[in-house]
Amino acid sequence: MSRIATTGITQTNAVIDCILNRSATKYYDPSATLSDDEIRALVQVGTAAPTSFHMQNWRFIAVRTRAAKARLSPIAWNQPAITEAAVTFIVCGQLADSAVIPDRLAPLVEAGVMPAAMVRDWEIPARDLYMAYPQRRRDEAVRTATFGAAAIMYAARSLGLGSTPMIGFDADAVHREFGLGEEEVPVMLLSVGVERQGNWAQKPRRPVTDVLDLV
Fold first, then answer.
1. pLDDT of 171
2. Closest listed residue to residue 46, CA positions, set 163, 137, 124, 135
3. Predicted structure pTM score
């Protein structure tokens, strides 16, 4: 069966259907919780997202207790999702650092997937690409964290949960309050939880003809 229909990609695929039906959640059930194991499972999916040179330069801080939410809310514009959703992740990107590559590739070498001699073939180009360029290092931190957050959003949707990505927060205050490292960037907040009534369906998107150039 062809994967492409005259009207576009078919919506019979569960993954595609999940993506096409996700929307940012505004209203959460504040009484619903997620277990720590459920939170870990979401982050495990997030860490399956791609990263440059397999650096895996991200960290996820799960704000899920009442006390932690009370710390985050005032430095995140008091957005209701912070206190009403089961968990809000502080999605952190870490500045690209080629020095971590040998350690991150070690499991592949030990498993026989990658020859040990190939590690330097990854580390040296990464060093040349990033280490003398602060903006590239930061760009990669943002890119990596965003990939991970997107994977968590779609995983949450597939489990019947809502999610809300947010950039409305005081980055410096979040950095201080939650002890981020010098090399860490708080890229976004991502609330996840059980939805209640009143949320919108996904808003219409611009036509593909407006955003796609075929060359």
1. 98
2. 163
3. 0.94
